């Protein structure tokens, strides 16, 4: 996690330079920004929408919107933070459309507090990565994270998959820091509980001590 | 310390963002509470497994197609802007 943040800090100067050049009409500079972040935007969009077609549209629309509104980008935050904010909104909009449901939002907290109390307390052994093949494991991870509400999985993806800080995540999602922390805890515990179905030690007991 | 109090701090504990005094208390709780120890270990593994197995990678050919589509739309936007300024 430290390495990701260090890398991000090192990239600030050139990112700003690219943004400045793009603002002046340099399309090559903008193309560099696309190449730098398209994989991240795609991953985030896939996690929110669970639909590859929608994720592709989100990538295109988020970068196009960013380009069209580049003048409004003040440079107070990082370009990436600003871009992800646009992408998350686009992804939620598509999710709403597909579900034909206006209520999908980051504030959707369907789980009660009790939902966070761990039910599964058996250890995982052997290592889950040794239990399943790569593609089977991938299916389990997809299925499990899809069961989380959009508000929870978005926070989990930004913090734990993309390695962003709590502060950056709060800024991207327009949430307070305590709200990000509380969602992250609940998302982590819910995922853990759901994964236990596949990973828990068959012979009972902890298996980790 | 009760298990519920431990759980409240679990996220900061796993992220290493906790002050020394509280960390000592949490470590002490972990020392005798088997259940919280398991929950802590498996939550840590949950984070690692999602971080290490990227489940939604962008295939290179699709990436190239998306890149071309984005840049062509941007070029169109740019030329429209230029025309409207003239």
Walk me through this protein's architecture.
- The complex is a heterodimer of chains A (209) and B (86).
- With 209 residues, chain A is mostly helical.
- Chain A has 2 domains: 2-99, Rna Polymerase Sigma Factor, Chain: A (Orthogonal Bundle), CATH 1.10.1740.10; 113-199, Winged helix-like DNA-binding domain superfamily/Winged helix DNA-binding domain (Arc Repressor Mutant, subunit A), CATH 1.10.10.10.
- Helices cover 68% and strands 0% of the residues of chain A.
- Chain A has 10 helices and no strands.
- The longest helix of chain A is centred in the first third of the chain and has 23 residues, at 27-49.
- Residues 204-209 of chain A have low confidence and may be disordered.
- Chain B contains 4 helices and no strands.
- Classes of the chains: A mainly alpha (209), B mainly alpha (86).
- The interface between A and B is large, with 54 and 40 residues.
Descriptors:
heterodimer; A: 209 residues; Rna Polymerase Sigma Factor, Chain: A; Arc Repressor Mutant, subunit A; disordered C terminus; B: 86 residues; mainly alpha
The CATH homologous superfamily of the largest domain in chain A: RNA polymerase sigma factor, region 2, helix turn helix motif
> Can you count the beta strands of chain A?
0
Note the overall shape of chain A.
Answer: elongated
Query: Any idea how many domains of chain B?
Result: 2
> What is the C-level CATH assignment of the largest domain in chain A?
Mainly Alpha
Please tell me how large the radius of gyration of chain B is: 25 Å
Fraction of residues in β-strands of chain A: under 5%
